[in-house]
Write a structure and sequence with these properties.
Length: about 190
Amino acid sequence: MSDDRLPPAILLKFPEYAKLIAEVIGTWNTLEDQSRLLFVAFTYIHPTQSALVMSAMASSQARLDVIRAAGRFALKNDPSRLKELEDLFDFLEKRLRVRNQYAHAVYVTNDQDQLCILRRRYEFSDDPKSIRIVDFEALKSEILLSLDAGRRLSKFHDLLLDEMDQKLWQALQETWTSLPFPRPTNQQ
């Protein structure tokens, strides 16, 4: 226990919260996987190579940074698309920060038996900021924001593909199918 005054929370005693927390985390995983497709669109890398490159990175933030950098390069001559990229990735980074708050939280209960997060940077402090009650409505809102991020990602990806030279896209697909890459197996 990080703080003798606060007992650790058993998430099984907060099943509705636990479901929403799992949904926030799971939705982020889907967003991260979806964002990999932008890397393919920006770099023309084989989709399997993209999956391997992304899985070799140690953090979600590193993956976002690499995809954003590739996008900045690919879109450097298109200010309106570049702005869309920046807005989208700012929104994704906010989703990642919230996901990380829940995924890496130290869960405790307060005196009213409410589910709380002990904020690590204040862990041994009497600062009132050290404890945050988990807000059920905020969790539900975050799920909706994450779903919106997924729609925005898909829309942006589709727009990039629509604007791509179709002969180039067809040549890439033909090249990719002729390469001896195995399909990813999700084995780690």
